[in-house]
Amino acid sequence: QVQLVESGGGLVQPGGSLRLSCAASGTIVSISTMGWYRQAPGKQRELVATITSGGNTNYVDSVQGRFTISRDNAKNTMYLQMNSLKPEDTAVYYCNAEMRTYYSPYNYRPYWGQGTQVTVSS
């Protein structure tokens, strides 16, 4: 069994910072691209940032320059450093990872975490 667990969400004032973590555990063979998504109330889930196993990153325009995605491949963990937070960043943030597991060793499949709430408000 494989799971992704996010942590680090919370309430922060505009201009503040938060660091999200996503830890993958279980019968993992390998992890390819990992990413952060978010879903605000009444809106569709949107991509925030992705990072490949080699460290190549991609960001949605609205967070470019404010958010930094990173990963520790030895720990199967991904991070999202969020600076200069704005009220429009308020959302549930989800971790996603493309993984091969002992039960599916030949194909990468997407896995999702349960989400962590980020609220930016004064």
Structural key phrases:
4-stranded antiparallel beta sheet, 7-stranded mixed beta sheet, 122 residues
Write the layout of secondary structure elements.
Layout: E1 2-7, E2 10-12, E3 18-26, E4 28-39, E5 46-51, E6 57-59, E7 67-72, E8 77-82, E9 91-101, E10 104-112, E11 116-120
Parallel strand pairs: 2-11
Antiparallel strand pairs: 1-3, 3-8, 4-5, 4-9, 5-6, 7-8, 9-10, 9-11
In words, what does this structure look like?
With 122 residues, the chain is mainly β. It has no helices and 11 strands. The strands form 2 sheets. Strands 2, 4, 5, 6, 9, 10 and 11 form a 7-stranded mixed sheet that branches. β4 and β5 (46-51) form a beta hairpin. The radius of gyration is 14 Å and the shape is elongated. The N and C termini lie far apart (40 Å).
